[in-house]
Amino acid sequence: MAIRQSSDMAKFKETLKAAKEVVILSGAGISAESGIPTFRGAGGFWRKYQASSLATPEAFRHSPSLVWEFYHYRREVAAKAQPNQGHKAIADYESRLGSEKKITVITQNVDGLHVRAGTKNLIELHGNLYKTRCTKCKEVLVNNDSPICEALAGRGAPDAKVVGSDIPVKSLPHCKKTNCGGLLRPHIVWFGENLDPAVLNKAETAMATCDVCLVVGTSSVVYPAAMFAPQAATRGAIVAEFNLEPTPATPDFHYYFEGPCGTTLPKALAD
After folding, report:
1. Where are the beta strands (DSSP E) in the chain?
2. Cα–Cα distance for residue pair 118/54, rounded to 1 Å
3. How confident is the model over 232-254, as a mean pLDDT?
4. Mean pLDDT of the chain
5. Active-site positions, per UniProt (predicted)?
6. Contact indicator for 149, 175 with CB cutoff of 8 Å
7. Which residues pair with 105 in a beta bridge?
8. Which residues are annotated as a binding site for NAD(+)?
9. Could you give the angle at which helices 261-269 and 9-18 cross, rounded to 10 degrees?
């Protein structure tokens, strides 16, 4: 369904003003503006490893220490990053209008920047760097410790000459329940794993009834999120994309605003 895109900001703002239910779907692009690596394309490596090859259950089974070094690095980078004007514009929009509109933010990002910016009604599709899940008892807990365990202090630097990890598994984060003690893993949806059905259901419910959807900094290639906005457009919702460059889904959308999210979003979401 090819649509002729508009970049008429004034017209879009009128559409947004009339909407009763709004979904903002965000991806790696908005966090990249805060200095968070996207681990896509040429920047897709940590040390000599393709980052996507470490974000798998198989990699964790093979070398939990190496995977934890990678995620320790990611936690430290995200902790130093600050929400940008795009994150802040979304949080401010929800704060101002959340009592009169249903506003839902669905993010593919795991860095916690939306929460730090002040977003309340947030669905994190792929988990969160600052949550752990026990591989034995399955308990999920928030953990903002830096480092998450002593053995990871000063580790995880993206030095291409470093191969593997010599951290003993017993020194990695473990469940603190006295009757458990299982190895902890990052509470992240890895490649080859399914999204949490309850989380996916919440996202699909919001997408099914929104009048307007803003697609922000997402490449529209990671499924199932890649289908959310095109499906909304097909059923009649107005979809506006905010990106640095067009994506495979751009022809499906009504509006396209090119440029950094930190520049375009504050204009779109301001009074």
Report:
1. 21-26, 45-46, 49-50, 102-107, 122-124, 127-134, 140-142, 184-188, 212-216, 238-243, 255-258
2. 31
3. 94
4. 94
5. 126 (proton acceptor)
6. no
7. 24, 122
8. 27-46, 108-111, 217-219, 243-245, 261
9. 50
Can you say which residues are annotated as belonging to the binding site for substrate?
71, 74
Summarised one tens digit per residue, pLDDT across range 54-73 is 999 999 999 999 999 999 99
Model confidence, pTM: 0.94
Helix, strand counts (H, E) of the chain: 10, 11
Cα separations (Å) of 144 from 49, 78, 101, 152, 186?
26, 11, 32, 14, 12
Nearest Cα to 68, choosing from 149, 141, 140, 163? 149
Could you tell me the domains of the chain? Answer: 1-35+83-126+195-270 (3.40.50.1220), 37-80+129-188 (3.30.1600.10)
Per residue in 125-168, pLDDT (tens digit) is: 999 999 999 999 999 999 999 999 999 999 999 988 899 999 99
Instruction: Enumerate residues 6+ apart whose C-beta is below 8 A from 135.
Output: 182, 183, 184, 185
Q: Which residues are annotated as a binding site for Zn(2+)?
A: 134, 137, 175, 180
- Rounded distance between C-alpha atoms, residue 270 and residue 92, angstroms: 9
E strands present in 183-252:
184-188, 212-216, 238-243
Q: How does DSSP classify residue 181?
A: -
Residues annotated as catalytic (active site), given as ranges: 126
> What strands lie across the sheet with 238-243, from one edge to the other?
122-124, 102-107, 21-26, 212-216, 238-243, 255-258
